[in-house]
Amino acid sequence: MLNCLHRMKSNTIYEVLLKPKSVELQRSLNRQAHKTSLYEIPNLILRRGQSFDISITFDRTFSEADDEIVLRFVTGRQPMQSKNTVIPVTKVRNLQQGEWGYQITSTEDKKVSLKICTGSSCVVGRYTVYIDTVHRNNEKREEKYRYTHPDDIFIIFNPWCSADTVFLEDENEREEYILNETGRIWMGTVGKFSVRPWNFAQFDDVCLMAALAMLEKSELADSARGDPLLVVRAVSGVINNNEHDGGILVGNYSGKYDDGVAPYAWNGSSAILEEYLKKRKGVKYGQCWTFAAVATTALRALGIPTRCVTNFISAHDSDFSTQIDNFWSPDNKPRKRLNDTIWDFHVWNESWFKRPDLPDGYDGWQAFDPTPQECNEGVFTCGPASVKAIKQGKLYLGFDTRFLFAEVNGDRIHWTIDSEGNMEAIAEEKSIVGRFLSTKAVNTISREDVTNSYRYAEGTSELEEAIKLAKKLCARKEVKIVSPSADDIEFSYNGSVQKNGDIDVEVKMKNIGKESRVVDIYITAIATKYTAVPSNDLKDSLAASVLEPGAENETKLSLKASDYISSIDTDSHVNIYIIANVKETNQKYICREIIRCERPNLELKTEGNATVGKPFDVIVKLVNTLSIPLTGGYINLEGPGMQKVSAVKIKKPINPNEEIRETIQIKPRRAGRREIIANFHCKQLCDVTGVTEVEISGEPNKS
């Protein structure tokens, strides 16, 4: 009788629908296992191709014999199973890494625990999770119920998963190119590098949402968002705002930034992306390094290993079909406005992923440039191109390889041009571009030179073959240079800038021939942007020298800091143009050198204990090393996982050799070791930066 009653009771229970009462996503444990604990978004964030655990509590006891569970992961604007934006996940006998499926790990009365694995090539983005239950009653009828989880989950790329196309084998590199929240961007000039610390802040609450908003803006099809090649190209295409297709950040190289934030005033990506999400229009203003930094933030947030790369002496707006041209008037004056642009430096990006669209051997670092050069398929974008293909001169492999090849390979031809437009090629500088390609080294703040990844060594047969192939592919024609009748004057240049900002330039000449020579030499100092766009002439010197055999002479030009710093834009520097002509032989000496004045040191020091949720003091110290006062100064301070701090205005001029100290409070949101980054800028100077590290105690916010 008791057995009969028990059977009746069981039948009564199992005849009803199976309804989830609660679902525990085990956010804390899963986020830790997927290395997503640092994301400030509280939702479950998973790296694709990796398993995770959940538990479901039903309204009755679960029966494996009569009950079935199907999980559905749904993403996109028009979800469809045929487009892989609706994924039904069923029970499997054995979980395979990188393949969808789940196993029941335990059942305890009404509670069922599952281990679920996502696909290693699945679409990345925001998912809604449905739990479908099917109960088969004694009459073999199916009773179905659908539960919708109230919280979305996020699935991103996984460089820890060998089946993912972004897999990166070295753990130190994964730590650097995915998890490191701060970095260094190289700027300045050859011979005088400057380093810009940057707060990538990819785990700040706005950054993942902004990265997904970029994919929406790019109109990349939902089903294509599992391919890192297409995701990188889409993100690159929407970073820079322009009249043609809009974007995240408005480019400005004019030196006039009153209606926005000057590019040099930003310390990190989070503030830029936060403003974009609020206003949904281009943020003012950015330049190449800010575009590259924001791209790094967005792609690291999505799980793609990414870094910034700086190319010193970088050709721009060139596809290698023609040489780089500089022009001079017949009276030896530079025709600056006609010149092709060679930037002092240019920053682009590399992301790491496989290239199944290319022949074998071109996986790994892929270069792309968020600073637009060419409109491709209706969008201003450049890349990704295999770095190996760039090195080999294989311009036909990948996206826009010819542009990236031209940025690191090129000859400069100097022409004279008369009033009627007639030109004569007078000199050639071979292999002038592509120097000291730089990125932050793994686990240090040092510079890693990656030039050999982009170019074969100068003078090698491999470089000769790569350039020969590239020229063939772009139908480039050689230019004939007028040769001098003799080459018997030795020229040497020496230029220096003192710590106080004063500039001294000297050109020495020596006649090593057997005949007398007359040398005309012209030196001019011009205020110039790092993009090589000139703004105003500062000072020039014109001299003629008669050099007997064995004789030496020199021509000098000097500039006091007080003569030029206040008359140029904050982010301009001085370019020296030199041209000398030997009358009897038509021998030419042409030189263009960049001079940047020394930046003062910005020292940072923290005081007191740093604890989550409590402000602490950062003391910022600056000594004015220039010979002129610094006016209109501001200090900006930030760090990853820190509350935003308003810029601090320096109310009075900072006189020569004067020291200032400012105490700024900042409040951390997350525990751990963090870098705090500061920059100072004023009417006379920018790119004055400082960094300090702080250990923040206290438990981070739990999801």
UniProtKB/TrEMBL annotation:
Q: For this UniProt record, give its keywords in alphabetical order, as a comma-separated list.
A: Acyltransferase, Transferase
Instruction: Please state which protein family the record places this protein in.
Output: Belongs to the transglutaminase superfamily. Transglutaminase family.
- The answer to whether the entry has keyword Transferase is yes
* Record-annotated membrane-spanning stretches: none
Question: If you read the UniProt record, what top EC class would you report for this enzyme, in one word?
Answer: transferase
- SUPFAM superfamilies, per the entry: Cysteine proteinases (SSF54001), E set domains (SSF81296), Transglutaminase, two C-terminal domains (SSF49309)
| Active site (record annotation) | 288, 346, 369
Q: Which residues form the Transglutaminase-like domain?
A: 280-372
Name the species this protein comes from. Mytilus coruscus (Sea mussel)
Asked whether the UniProt record includes Cytoplasm among its keywords, one would answer no
What's the protein called, per UniProt? TGM1
Any one GO molecular-function label of the UniProt entry: protein-glutamine gamma-glutamyltransferase activity
Enzyme Commission code(s) on record: 2.3.2.13
